[in-house]
């Protein structure tokens, strides 16, 4: 079986807390202090190992899992995730002929995404954990190779980069 290189990059946006303070009232017997702080919206993603040791690239065009994306945001909302392909939406062979094999990407229930058109943005749709202890929510990532069983021999691969942001 052929293998595919998989890489999901974690993006962690720092969340600085800014504090402003001022004395708002003083008298001979008391003082009042006003203060506030801001925590910026932040999301994080974790790349988990998957058990895919090789893709089935025969004519069956079987949908196959390439990984699980885990996301957490401090906004209480789902995240926006962006997906890009290093090979423009193709599995590219190492056979020296530059052979390409198209595929489609499934993100959870969103199916048939074609990365040949550039970056795909899954807007406000990727499930995100929100707990204060950082539990994530998982979304499976699957591809369907559009092979016909007559493709040139070689090992075909691509790298999909996922970037997560808060809404």
How would you describe the overall organization of this protein?
- Keywords: Signal.
- This protein is mostly beta strands and 167 residues long.
- The chain has a single domain, classed as Immunoglobulin-like.
- 0% of the residues lie in helices and 49% in strands.
- It is built from no helices and twelve strands.
- The chain has strands at 17-26, 31-39, 43-47, 64-73, 79-85, 90-93, 100-107, 110-113, 120-126, 137-145, 156-157, 160-165.
- Strands 3, 4, 6, 7, 8, 10 and 11 form a seven-stranded antiparallel sheet that branches.
- The radius of gyration is 22 Å and the shape is elongated.
Furnish the topology, listing elements before pairings.
Elements: E1 17-26, E2 31-39, E3 43-47, E4 64-73, E5 79-85, E6 90-93, E7 100-107, E8 110-113, E9 120-126, E10 137-145, E11 156-157, E12 160-165
Antiparallel strand pairs: 1-2, 3-4, 4-10, 5-9, 5-12, 6-7, 6-11, 7-8, 7-10
């Amino acid at each position: 079986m052929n293998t595919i290189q998989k890489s999901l990059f974690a993006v962690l946006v720092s969340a600085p807390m800014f504090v402003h303070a001022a004395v708002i009232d003083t008298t001979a017997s008391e003082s009042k202090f006003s203060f506030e702080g801001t925590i910026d919206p932040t999301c994080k993603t974790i790349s988990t190992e998957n058990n895919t040791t090789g893709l089935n690239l025969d004519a069956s065009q079987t949908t196959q899992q390439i990984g699980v994306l885990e996301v957490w945001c401090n906004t209480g909302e789902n995240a926006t995730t962006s997906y890009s392909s290093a090979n423009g939406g193709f599995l590219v062979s190492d056979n020296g002929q530059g052979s390409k094999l198209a595929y489609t990407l499934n993100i959870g229930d969103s199916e048939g995404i074609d990365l040949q058109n550039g970056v795909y943005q899954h807007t406000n749709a990727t499930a995100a954990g929100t707990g204060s202890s950082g539990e994530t929510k998982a979304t499976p990532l699957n591809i369907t190779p559009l092979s016909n069983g007559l493709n040139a021999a070689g090992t075909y691969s691509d790298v999909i980069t996922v970037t997560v942001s808060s809404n």
